[in-house]
Design a protein that fits this description.
The chain has about 475 residues and is an all-beta fold. The protein folds into 3 domains: about 130 residues, no CATH class; about 120 residues, Thrombin, subunit H, CATH 2.40.10; about 160 residues, no CATH class. The chain is about 0% helix and about 45% strand. It contains 2 helices and 39 strands. The strands form 9 sheets. A 6-stranded mixed β-sheet has the order 26-25-30-29-28-27, with no helix packed on it. A 5-stranded mixed β-sheet has the order 1-2-3-4-39, with no helix packed on it. A 4-stranded antiparallel β-sheet has the order 5-6-7-8, with no helix packed on it. The longest helix is centred in the first third of the chain and has 5 residues. This is Quino protein amine dehydrogenase. Pfam families: WD40. It comes from Aspergillus avenaceus. One of its GO terms (cellular component) is microtubule organizing center.
């Protein structure tokens, strides 16, 4: 689905490229039209009919993740904002700001409401997963698909560029994969899935494949379908794999489109804490990554988070592996297995987090022979890892409730921990998001339930600090530059 999701709270939302922001204050919908620019003055307020906000989401830029400074006017004018309450959906055009469409009398209890294949479609997942409805804002027509199994993004997805729609259905006791034409949503193909309980699907970024993975209790099972819904391969584990000890699949992740124009890898995260790396030419396992660290002559650089003796700030210290891995994180619950897999922009590096030691980020080099090149050990469980869209830079947040900071990793220098000047979160739910990429742009948003801060990390003489460019706050919504527009 063409969405960005909410921001750090239900009342603040950022567009995926970071070029727009919106927040709610009662019945006031406050839209920041240029928060990433130096002016940061174009703020407008519109009135909505209900104070309850269920969903607040931006459409994606039609030109992809690139800076709006390079976008043509027609692309900027197509950007839209979705505001959904329990009773209606409002679609706002951003440039110029005006109400574009309204969907009234929607069924109560919608599980998810989002943009569809682009800004001209709205998709609604109804209560109890009875059906999903796609509204075409250009024609006013709608299509209905019955019995979607899930209402989240792993349950369905659009093919890149051509926008065919794939969805897992559960009409009875069996899982069903269906592929639909763009716009008309006419059925292209349907496949009865040989699964016990399918957990989700993901299109490959190059649009060539659809991967579906089964529940962990069924053991390792990943189904690879062609774009038109033909079963191509069933992956059940590497050669010589002993299925009697198979704990199954926790999740999957495709590598980005490489210079060759295709996705090279499919990472299969297992409940036992390993990751199978499949090459997409044959979908056979080329290597298995293990989160059980073994010391050898070519040990990677291991960094452990600790409080500095001088000022009490957090810092990384490089330590021997035996010392660095002696620390144990706070319990993060009963979940097991690989919870995070994130590829760098070119697919050469993979960052992983295993729930057994959820405080460690592992960084693997897959370019030739898969090898662990670095690991960062933290005091608290890792919440988020995100790679820069075109550079080898990694940002990390953890569930540290007392310290608002981002961890910054690059292969060219030691990692650093940078304090962010923002409100402390009692839940430790700090979120970070890179701004859309342009020439030499390394700005990012850092968010708490009260604030979003835009800035960048500056490193001079081995001293790192966060340079604040702009702030969006729930405490003073709209700032001092508001210009009112009412509906």
């Amino acid at each position: 689905m063409d969405s960005t999701g909410a921001g750090v709270s239900a009342s603040i939302s950022l567009s995926e490229d970071g070029e727009y922001a919106a927040q709610m204050s009662g019945k006031d919908l406050i839209i920041h039209l240029n928060p990433a620019t130096s002016e940061f003055q174009d703020v407008q307020i519109v009135k909505v009919k209900e104070s309850s906000t269920r969903f607040l989401k931006f459409s994606r830029a039609s030109h992809g993740l690139q800076s709006s400074a390079y976008a043509v006017e027609g692309e900027r004018s197509s950007r839209r904002l979705l505001h959904a309450s329990d009773a209606r959906v409002l679609i706002w055009q951003l440039n110029p700001l005006q109400l574009h469409a309204e969907i009234e009398s929607i069924e109560p209890g919608a599980l998810n409401i989002d943009f569809g294949s682009d800004e001209n479609e709205v998709i609604i997942f109804h209560a109890w997963n009875t059906k999903l409805t796609i509204y075409n804002l250009e024609t006013g027509r709608c299509q209905v698909i019955k019995s979607p199994k899930f209402a989240h993004t792993n349950g369905c997805g659009y093919r890149s560029k051509t926008k065919q729609f794939a969805v897992i259905l559960k009409p009875d006791t069996s899982d069903l994969l269906t592929i639909h034409e763009p716009r008309s949503y006419e059925l292209i193909n349907r496949a009865l899935l040989p699964t016990v309980d399918a957990q989700g699907l993901k299109w490959s970024p190059d649009g060539r494949w659809i991967a579906v993975w089964d529940t962990a209790s069924a053991g390792t099972k990943v189904l690879i379908f062609t774009a038109d819904g033909q079963l191509f391969r069933t992956y059940t584990g590497p050669p010589g794999f002993d299925s009697s000890f198979d704990l199954g699949v926790r999740g999957i992740e495709w590598s980005p489109v490489a210079n060759s124009g295709v996705s090279d890898y499919l990472a299969v995260g297992k409940v036992d804490g390993s990751v199978d790396i499949l090459r997409c030419k044959t979908f056979s396992c080329s290597t298995t990554l293990s989160h059980a660290f073994h010391t050898n002559d070519n040990s990677p650089s291991i960094w452990r988070e600790q409080y500095a003796a001088t000022d009490g700030d957090l810092e990384y210290a490089e330590l021997p592996s035996t010392s660095a891995f002696s620390i144990t994180a706070e319990s993060s619950g009963p979940l097991r297995g690989v919870s995070t897999m994130a590829f760098s922009f070119n697919g050469n590096l993979l960052a992983t987090v295993d729930q057994t030691r959820s405080n460690i980020v592992w960084i693997w080099d897959l370019e030739s022979t898969a090898v662990l090149i670095s690991a960062m050990v933290h005091e608290h469980p890792v919440r988020q890892v995100t790679w820069h869209p075109s550079k080898t830079l990694l940002l990390i947040t953890t569930a540290n409730i007392a310290f608002a900071a981002v961890r910054y990793w690059t292969p060219l220098s030691p990692p650093c921990i940078v304090r962010i000047p923002t409100s402390r979160s009692d839940s430790g739910r700090y979120d970070v998001r890179w701004l859309s990429d342009s020439a030499d742009d390394s700005r990012f948003w850092f968010g708490t339930p009260e604030d979003y801060v835009l800035g960048y990390v500056e490193i001079e003489s081995d001293i790192s600090q966060f340079k604040t460019l702009n702030t969006i706050s729930n405490k003073t919504p709209g700032g001092s530059h508001n210009t009112g527009v009412s509906r």
